[in-house]
Please model this.
Amino acid sequence: MATIIQALQARLDSVNQRISAACARAGRAPDAVTLIAVSKTFPAQSVRAAAAAGQRHFGENYVQESIGKIAEIAANAPFDGMVWHFIGPIQSNKTRQIAQNFAWVHTIDRDKIARRLAEQREAPLPALNVCIEVNVSGEASKSGVTPQALPALAELVAGLPQLRLRGLMAIPEPTPDEALSRRRFAGLRELRDALNARGHTLDTLSMGMTADMEAAIAEGATLVRIGTAIFGERKPA
Ligand SMILES: *Cc1c(COP(=O)(O)O)cnc(C)c1O
Model:
């Protein structure tokens, strides 16, 4: 375990340095960006090692896999202040487990999912922090609401009990073209600003992964979701 913790510590340090350097270049405070370690496909032991190295925010994509991991970590040598983020596509028959086990959901993209999460986030749990996923690259295959449909969905989500609309999330198409990445992320920021101009109070932009975190931070990311740079390559599913 000690060597696993050291290896993860080194990878986390290097990711945190990338974040600080990107914040410095953008004239942003280093704590303006929170690192979410994306642990999908990695076992509870990897999460525990990252937690031992000081990491507290974790992102998961698959309900079945994550519920087991969250329970195992909570039961066996738990860490204070763990924050679990659901960042995967949401099937409506999985909303109850998501509502009951996560603190954040980044991938709301339709009314039905938002309504179910609100109903199933039962007291005494605090309101669920949520982001709406937006399709900023216009690819037909991508999940996320269109920019045109965003204002109506934001209005609905903001009015639901037990949900707190915190911001927007996007996964632009992978590209080596940094200028294109910047445009996609800037697009998400502009959509957030437009909602705030209509009276919303969104403080979150969930954007940036291993390959494009610098571009996302330059355009205002507040949450970056990093898997590969922390845990290594994932095995193909
Ligand atoms: C897997 C995943 C990530 C992490 O991607 P890396 O390229 O490994 O950093 C981030 N966000 C979402 C939504 C993911 O599914």
In short: The beta strands are 34-38, 57-60, 83-86, 104-108, 128-133, 163-169, 204-206, 223-226. DSSP finds nine helices and eight strands in the chain. The two ends are 26 Å apart (CA to CA).
